[in-house]
Structure formats: C-alpha cells, structure tokens
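User: Can you predict the 3D structure for this chain?
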Amino acid sequence: MKNPFKNEKLQNVNSRLVELKEKRESLANEIEEIQTAMNDTFESYAVGTIEAEDVRKAEKLLREKKDEYKQNEEMISKVEAVKTEVKKESVPYYKEMRQKKLQDVQKRYDDKVQDVHEARNEFLRQLNELGQIKKEANRANTEYNNVMADIGEESNPYLTGIQEKPFIKGSLGVVKDNETIGVREDVQRQAYEKVLPQFAEKGGEE
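Assistant: Here is the predicted structure, written as structure tokens:
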C-alpha cells in the first residue's frame, strides 16, 4: 500500500545529503593520510632520498584535498538549507494527506459499523430463537404436570428442564467464554481494541 506521507522531493534531498556526508568522511580520511605521509616526505627530503619537487607535489595534493573538503562543507550547508525549506513547504501537503487518509478511514469505519450492527441484530435474533427453544422444555413440563393432575397423580412444580448454556462466564470462571451464549463486555473490548479472542478465530479453540 502506497504511503500517502511519502515526500519524494524530501527523500531526494536526504539522499543527496547522505552522499555529501559520505564524501566528507572520505575526504577527512584522505587528508589525515596525506598529512601523515607528509611527515615521512619531509624526513625523506631531509635525508636526501627525494627532491623538493616531490615535497611540493605532496603539499599541492594536500591543498587540493582541503579545498575539496571546504567546497563539500559548503555544499552540505546549502543542501541542508534547501532541506529546511522543503520541510516547511511539506507541512500543508502532510496536513492534506492526513485529512484525506482520515476521511478514507472514517468511511471504511462507518461501513464496517453497519456490518457490525447487522451482525449484532442477527445475534439477538438467534438468541431470541434459542430462548424460544428453551421455553419448549417449560411447556413440556407444564403439559406433563397437567396430565399427571388429570389422572390423579401428584404434579411436580420443580421438574428440571434442559441443560442450558450459561449466558456469560461467572466470576468463578468454571465455564469458558467459548461455551457461553453471551459475550462479556471485556471480551468485546478485547476484540475491538486489541486482538480477536482465539476461540473466535476461524477454526480456533480456547
């Protein structure tokens, strides 16, 4: 995905600065090497192994490298000044890109909210259907007691129904979240703000 905050002009300026600073380091090393060699050159001249012309050549090379280093430093200063201007010019651009990005994110968020609302409504519809199924057990017990009363047998108001799943996990934590029919608020927030609970992943188990 293309980075909307990528500024090609600023990147080019930064690349140029990297080149100049690498050249600075290279020239500084060369100058240091030449200065070290100059000491040997003067010693060689003093003992007569080289001529004055050789000394002048070494001095000329040192001056050239120092001049080149100075020119490079001037270039660095100028490019850094350009960088400052480019950064200032980029502020409105970055603001505009941020606004466009936020608008895009807001639209996708709002669209997904609609999906979440529909999923929530479908969950409630399914929960309602589940509750209706549960009530069938109560009706079965009522019908049973009515029949017992009709034939003169004692009815039992405490008949057990079906084995229901808990709505949410209790404080004792005996039941796992993936075994409940409801969803605790903290589990909802975990999915919204952090990561999807493992049991909710496709094929996942807690």
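Residues 196 and 202 are 10 Å apart (CA to CA). The chain has two domains: 8-110, 165-206.
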